[in-house]
């Protein structure tokens, strides 16, 4: 092999990579939803960790109009187009509720536990994921 042949092969390979790489997301329609499910589970785990380390309740609610997750007044993450998010919450004991907590929410307590519940993520083209939160220990896992 000469140096010229090697350079030609590298140029052809880089052109192919430049043309193929942007289209990988279109080839795998479920990859975006799967990635979003993993990010959402990581966000829930982070909220649980903050509840324990800061010794205060942390809550996650949905803002359907803006397509965002919220923790109190703080906007946490925006979800992708075409993804529908639903929240199924467990019960929060009355003595832990505050007057402004009328909306549905997943709540993590300072001892690491939670009110329990699930986030349902679905897309017509990519399927369905359920992110469950266990009440007793606040464990978060994804059912695919």
UniProtKB/TrEMBL annotation:
It is a single-pass membrane protein. Belongs to the GSP H family. The lineage of its organism: Bacteria, Pseudomonadati, Pseudomonadota, Gammaproteobacteria, Oceanospirillales. SUPFAM superfamilies: Pili subunits. Its main location: membrane. Keywords: Cell inner membrane, Cell membrane, Membrane, Methylation, Transmembrane, Transmembrane helix. Pfam families: GspH. It comes from Marinobacterium maritimum. It is found in: Cell inner membrane. Residues 37-133 form the General secretion pathway GspH domain. InterPro entries: Pilin-like, T2SS_GspH. This is Type II secretion system protein H.
